[in-house]
Automatic annotation (TrEMBL):
Domain GINS subunit: 84-151
Name this protein carries in UniProt: DNA replication complex GINS protein SLD5
Cell compartment(s), UniProt: Nucleus
The organism of origin for this protein: Ceratodon purpureus (Fire moss)
GO CC annotation terms, alphabetical: GINS complex
Length: 234
């Protein structure tokens, strides 16, 4: 009886001679959408790495990639004895590639949380961009940082200088909180024809954005184009 997991001779794809087409292999190994997801994950990672602020967490993509990795690892273990070394290496490379990209994406986000934790926690829009796990991490990070700063430095200063937020009690703003520079310049590529795009409030600075063309622009004016997937950072 066909178990639905391979051919009659036990191989994990459609044809027993090992020459099944790519669709058969991808379907039976549970990673038919992997090529597309790899490209999406690459783009998401590049955007996150190049943007000065933390971007929205791609929860559905991360969940899908994690599920694909788990399925592929399970299938490799189940079929290890029936695979030749070349095929086994190919599938393991696919797994490693996905794991590398996913870890790189998550590490970039964690580095931004470490750097801008206080700013993120005080800004509702940025806080909502974090995953539940990232929110928990950020809260614990700030608690540990606050205790460390108080025990090692702030607790030994006069009361007017004990705040982590302000240089002194007389400061009108929270001038000790590190914020990302949204006016930094970024390399970006337009994914569609956007026509004449305004880069300042007065309309004195504009750019004609054409598909696949590269631009060096300030991040602040184009941040909405990244959020709506009309341009990508490179």
């Amino acid at each position: 009886m066909d178990s639905g997991n391979g051919s009659e001779d036990g191989t994990p794809w459609g044809r027993g001679d090992g020459q099944g087409d790519d669709d058969d292999i991808n379907r039976d190994w549970g990673h038919k959408d992997i090529p597309n997801d790899v490209e999406v994950l690459k783009r998401v990672w590049r955007n996150e790495k190049s943007a000065p602020e933390i971007l929205a967490y791609e929860s559905l993509l991360v969940e899908r990639v994690q599920e694909q990795i788990a399925n592929m690892e399970e299938n490799i273990l189940a079929a290890a004895e029936s695979l030749d070394d070349m095929m086994l290496s190919i599938f393991e490379m696919d797994v490693n590639r996905l794991m590398f990209l996913l870890r790189a994406y998550l590490r970039v986000r964690l580095s931004k949380i470490d750097k801008f934790a206080l700013h993120i926690m005080r800004t509702a829009d940025l806080w909502d961009r974090l995953s539940p796990q990232e929110q928990e991490y950020a809260s614990k990070f700030v608690d540990v940082l606050s205790k460390h700063m108080h025990d090692s430095v702030l607790g030994k200063l006069e009361k007017a200088y004990e705040s982590m937020m302000k240089q002194a009690a007389s400061s009108e703003e929270n001038d000790m909180i590190v914020e990302p520079n949204l006016d930094t310049y970024v390399f970006c590529r337009s994914k569609t024809a956007l026509g004449t795009f305004q880069l300042d409030d007065k309309g004195d600075e504009t750019v004609d954005m054409m598909p696949n063309d590269l631009y060096i622009l300030r991040y602040r004016p184009v941040r909405n184009l990244i959020e709506t997937d009309r341009i990508e950072l490179v």
